[in-house]
Amino acid sequence: MEKNLFNLKKYLSEKCQLVDCALDAYLPPATQYPEVIFEAMRYSVLNGGKRLRPILVLAACDAVGGCADVAMPTACSLEFIHAFSLIHDDLPAMDNDDLRRGKPTNHKVFGDAIAILAGDALFAFAFQTITGETRGVPAEVVVEVTRRIAAAAGTGGMVVGQVVDMISEGQAADAKIMEFMHAHKTGALIDIAVISGGLLGGGSDAQIDALSTYGKKIGLAFQIADDILDIEGDVDKLGKPIGSDVGKGKSTYPSLYGLAKSKELARRAVDDAVNALDMFDERADPLRAIAQFIVDRES
Amino acid sequence: MEKNLFNLKKYLSEKCQLVDCALDAYLPPATQYPEVIFEAMRYSVLNGGKRLRPILVLAACDAVGGCADVAMPTACSLEFIHAFSLIHDDLPAMDNDDLRRGKPTNHKVFGDAIAILAGDALFAFAFQTITGETRGVPAEVVVEVTRRIAAAAGTGGMVVGQVVDMISEGQAADAKIMEFMHAHKTGALIDIAVISGGLLGGGSDAQIDALSTYGKKIGLAFQIADDILDIEGDVDKLGKPIGSDVGKGKSTYPSLYGLAKSKELARRAVDDAVNALDMFDERADPLRAIAQFIVDRES
């Protein structure tokens, strides 16, 4: 199997470093007036995250034979959008979380007003970065990628998923609502990561379709794995308390399907994701290995 | 003078109606699941606003000889961004306002969490609308307009202005900080409205420069007029209490320069705006009349 021949750990570490450099370079310096907003933006982006979404953009661009450089601005944009969503989700008016990866959340450090604005600023900056920094790609493709990312972040995805999460709070949602919620809240951004990489790399319609299937399946696997980690994970590696979802009375895959069945569902989603990449050559090996990694990770 | 020959009231009313129809048509229906977010988005957009920013986009497009149809998606996008900024500014963590145009603010109706998300959704939807609905314009221009709007809404404008407003709260800012704040908080979006219209209409570099000068000057006039209305306005027409800025200890043009001098500054800004349009023919008459209107308005 490819995953054994391919050194994923090395790949992820190298790409992560590239992405971290680019994020730092794109973000305005914290010395710019008014400093507090740029400090707050940098605090939540430059936090040692796994950079899963940016790496998926780059890996998908590679998979279709594109040059990953053209995808770096979009890769960073998705990390800005991810950071924006975490800042807003953590607010007292939303999930009211004090810790994120073991560090105080943005509003605990900068206050609620600046946290709201830092999220807004990162969201704007994401679109500024895609449209302002992308080179070597036809403008039509930049427009299409921007349109799809805006939809995936907003009313066609992430924001709508968070709304469903909010209105279902304290009550056990049924499987249909839970799946809608996850597919929108976390799935849409993972899906658009691989689609964007494919579009920027000049992928064919068939390749984009295959990448989209892959993206949906790993998004699903990611969420099931998250729910399992919430039960079986290691608190030090997770950076948040175990059982926090269960404690909030939220529906999870294990609460609806049981632990054994959930693990089987995750495994099947990974297989489906890998199978969707059949038409690709070895340049899709990173994507194949990432699918595996998503259910094997510890945080 | 042109403003006497041109029926601005009729022009504004006709354009306002066109914009209202387009806003309604672009926004997802409130019957879509999860309904509450679409209701909240529609509540704050379809509120009988003056539609100043969209009308400026259309008028600037007309002024350079473009077909205003190509600018309608961008015109609506700026109204979505304006509505997003008002929802977030009104939040308890920010200005904590209960009323907006005499109606309960978004979070008073839908709660803080949905209000934050409705703002986020409108911001995303703005970029989705520009990139997804613009027709008959080269993709390069759509990319450039999107980039400039993202900058004007975020770290190059509106959000940064709100940050300065927040961190200056309860203290009288000096003239330099107050001017920075206004130029970013409200000026940037007005400026980008006319620039966008000019770019979408195919304006030359010289025309875009002239429109930008016009935009900066009317933005300034708009703010000074706002500060004067806060002292001399009619509470019923304004839809908010008189003296609210003064009551919060905020610096205003009248507090720094006195009322008479402020009126003179507003008048001079309007003159500068109109003079900046010297190179344009009668197709810029709406812009000329709007400059006048901005200081003569009652709300």
Keywords:
homodimer, mainly alpha, two-stranded antiparallel sheet, 299 residues
Residue share in β-strands of chain A: under 5%
Could you give the distance between the termini of chain A? 25 Å
Oligomer description: homodimer
Mean pLDDT of chain A: 93
State the helix count of chain A. Answer: 16
Largest sheet of chain A: 2 strands, antiparallel
Can you write the helix and strand succession of chain A as a string? HHHHHEEHHHHHHHHHHH
Strand arrangement in the largest pleated sheet of chain A: 1-2
The backbone outline of chain A, from C-alpha atoms, is: globular
How much is the radius of gyration of chain A in Å? 18 Å
Indicate the structural class of chain A. Answer: mainly alpha
Given as residue ranges, the uncertain stretches of chain A (5+ residues, pLDDT < 50) are none
Describe the structure in your own words:
Two copies of one chain form a homodimer. With 299 residues, chain A is an all-alpha fold. Chain A is 72% helix and 1% strand. Chain A has helices at residues 2-5, 8-26, 35-45, 52-63, 72-90, 106-110, 112-133, 139-153, 158-167, 175-200, 205-232, 235-238, 244-247, 253-257, 259-276, 285-296; strands at 99-100, 103-104. The first copy, chain A, has a two-stranded antiparallel sheet. In chain A, helix 2 (8-26) crosses helix 5 (72-90), helix 4 runs antiparallel to helix 16 (285-296) and helix 9 packs antiparallel against helix 10 (175-200). The model of chain A has no long low-confidence stretch (mean pLDDT 93). At the A-B interface, helix 3, helix 7, helix 8 and helix 9 of A face helix 3, helix 7, helix 8 and helix 9 of B.
